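About this split. The held-out portion is used to measure sequence recovery: a designer receives only the structure tokens and must propose an amino acid at every position. Recovery is the fraction of positions where the proposal matches the reference. Here is one held-out target exactly as it appears in the evaluation file.
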């Protein structure tokens, strides 16, 4: 008798599992956005473009070249190329004598150590050391596709 009971419960469990799987699939299909249709209607002829425009390496390199070419003559001179490094050197050379001493070079690191050493003991505890980790920028989100246009009011009353 218990075999019939277990068999019946197993059959009910299979039916319930089948219904859950069937309903889950129906919800995911119903939740799909209709953005591709909206995009297809906005382009000429109702078709999507064959290729997506992307920034080429030449474009990036041209932007980099333009940052260095300050006088916009189409050439990067030695002075233009070294200008950012001269500015960085001048920031480090605090006494402006043209010679960068170790103390001038290490001032940023010394300042960072002094700020992290909260108890001023001359040594950092593990908790203090954690605060010296470099702050990383959030990764840039790369968007290969243009944003979808706002949906048209198809359901006007």
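Reference sequence for scoring:
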């Amino acid at each position: 008798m218990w075999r019939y009971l277990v068999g019946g419960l197993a059959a009910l469990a299979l039916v319930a599992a089948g219904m859950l799987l069937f309903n889950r699939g129906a919800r995911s299909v119903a939740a799909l956005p209709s953005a591709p249709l909206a995009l297809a209607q906005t382009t000429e002829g109702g078709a999507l473009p064959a290729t997506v425009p992307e920034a080429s390496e030449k474009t990036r390199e041209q932007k980099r070249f333009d940052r260095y070419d300050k006088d916009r003559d189409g050439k990067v001179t030695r002075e233009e190329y070294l200008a950012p490094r001269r500015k960085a050197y001048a920031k480090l050379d605090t006494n402006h004598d043209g010679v960068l001493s170790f103390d001038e070079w290490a001032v940023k690191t010394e300042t960072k150590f002094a700020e992290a050493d909260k108890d001023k003991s001359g040594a950092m505890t593990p908790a203090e050391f954690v605060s010296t980790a470099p702050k990383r920028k959030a990764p840039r989100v790369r968007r290969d596709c243009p944003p979808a246009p706002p949906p048209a009011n198809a359901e006007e009353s």
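Annotator remark: The helical segments are 2-30, 35-42, 57-68, 78-92, 102-105, 107-116, 126-130.
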